[in-house]
């Protein structure tokens, strides 16, 4: 296969021992995990499937044709593992917003919905170095676009085979022929799947694609700093000022979501005084600025993990704010290398 980027060293013959095999596959671990995350929408499932991919590759290393691409062979195993895992689970995709649920106003009444499968964020610390590089020549999406939380949420709407085809062709830059060899079927069937997948994504975005994500800028860093200050000062006015007029707010695992600055303010006014104070810690998720918020309850001196916030900036304001709350948010702190209690 002619996938890109980067040169690939073949496994060769004789069959490698374990240390040599691990040296050759080490460079692909992070990108395989990211690929599994895009397929599954779950950080934890991605970790398990990436490890399973390397285990399967080790056990089946004698089947590898050294004339081909090691990277392509690993992606074949990873993609098929993800398709099998999706087939085996009850929910075929994870969500940031419950389908067809209208935006809420005022207090949240939908309640947490642990029975739904919620899309998880991806720590920037786990992103491969290639996240700032160029995808293959056939790709339609820039690498930074294709890690955004909103993009991963959008492709979860696709049936698994369409999802795999779009990721392999439009994100990684594989040809339709190469993708057909991996997924089975004809080149025409892959092109048909791509056409349907692109139409679904085009309908999802006003401009037919996600907001363009440039390299992090000084303005973005200032926006993040102002956001953290608003929380630490418990300034609701300061927080709302940072939102675009048409901003969207999600808070998995609660069903409720809010559209527009006025509606978001109306919700926060109902919960803002639930804690005695907040402490914000900068982090990164899905190539976007993110904040981990610790909260101190009234008459409790300890700062405890409270929520994980993923910010999508646009025009020096926040266009989309996704805040993981409750046990879902608290469980993510470990994956982001953060303690459950702030020292």
Automatic annotation (TrEMBL):
Xref: Pfam families: Sigma70_r2, Sigma70_r4_2, SnoaL_2
Keywords, in A-Z order: Nucleotidyltransferase, Sigma factor, Transcription, Transcription regulation, Transferase
Domain RNA polymerase sigma factor 70 region 4 type intervals: 150-201
Region (Disordered): 98-119
Enzyme category, top tier: transferase
Classification via CDD domains: NTF2_like
Domain spans labelled SnoaL-like: 225-319
Domain of life: Bacteria
Transmembrane spans: none
InterPro entries per UniProt: NTF2-like_dom_sf, RNA_pol_sigma-70-like, RNA_pol_sigma-70_dom, RNA_pol_sigma-G_actinobac, RNA_pol_sigma70_r2, RNA_pol_sigma70_r4_t2, RNA_pol_sigma_r2, RNA_pol_sigma_r3/r4-like
GO aspect biological process, one term: DNA-templated transcription initiation
Gene3D superfamilies: 1.10.1740.10, 3.10.450.50, Winged helix-like DNA-binding domain superfamily/Winged helix DNA-binding domain
Domain RNA polymerase sigma-70 region: from-to ranges: 26-90
Entry EC number(s): 2.7.7.6
One term of GO molecular function: DNA-directed RNA polymerase activity
Subunit description: Interacts transiently with the RNA polymerase catalytic core formed by RpoA, RpoB, RpoC and RpoZ (2 alpha, 1 beta, 1 beta' and 1 omega subunit) to form the RNA polymerase holoenzyme that can initiate transcription.
Family in the record: Belongs to the sigma-70 factor family. ECF subfamily.
Protein name: RNA polymerase subunit sigma-70
Organism: Mesorhizobium neociceri
């Amino acid at each position: 296969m002619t996938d890109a980027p980067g040169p690939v060293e073949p496994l060769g013959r004789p069959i490698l021992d374990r240390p040599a095999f691990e040296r050759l596959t080490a460079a692909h671990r992070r990108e395989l995990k990211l690929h599994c995350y895009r397929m599954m929408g779950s950080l934890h499932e991605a970790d398990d499937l990436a490890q399973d991919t390397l285990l399967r590759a080790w056990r089946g290393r004698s089947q590898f044709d050294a004339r081909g691409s090691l990277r392509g062979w690993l992606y074949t195993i990873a993609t098929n593992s993800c398709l099998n895992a999706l087939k085996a689970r009850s929910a075929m995709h994870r969500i940031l917003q419950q389908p067809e649920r209208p935006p809420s106003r005022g207090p949240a009444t939908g309640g947490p919905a642990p029975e739904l499968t919620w899309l998880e964020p991806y720590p920037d610390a786990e992103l491969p170095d290639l996240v700032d590089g160029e995808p293959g020549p056939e790709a339609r999406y820039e690498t930074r676009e294709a890690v955004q939380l909103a993009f991963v949420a959008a492709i979860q709407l696709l049936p698994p085979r369409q999802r795999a085809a779009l990721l392999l062709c439009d994100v990684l830059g594989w040809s339709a022929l190469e993708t057909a060899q991996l997924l089975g079927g004809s080149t025409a069937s892959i092109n048909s799947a791509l056409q349907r997948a692109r139409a679904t994504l085009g309908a999802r975005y006003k401009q037919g694609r996600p907001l363009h994500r440039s390299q992090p800028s000084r303005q973005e860093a200032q926006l993040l700093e102002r956001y953290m200050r608003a929380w630490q000062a418990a300034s609701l006015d300061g927080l709302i000022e940072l939102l675009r007029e048409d901003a969207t707010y999600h808070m998995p695992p609660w069903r409720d979501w809010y559209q527009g600055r006025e509606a978001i303010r109306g919700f926060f006014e109902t919960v803002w005084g639930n804690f005695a104070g907040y402490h914000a810690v900068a982090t990164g998720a899905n190539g976007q600025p993110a904040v981990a918020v610790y909260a101190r309850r009234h008459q409790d001196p300890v700062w405890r993990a409270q929520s994980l916030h993923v910010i999508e900036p646009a025009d020096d304001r926040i266009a989309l704010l996704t805040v993981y709350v409750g046990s879902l948010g608290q469980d993510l702190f470990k994956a982001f290398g953060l303690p459950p209690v702030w020292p």
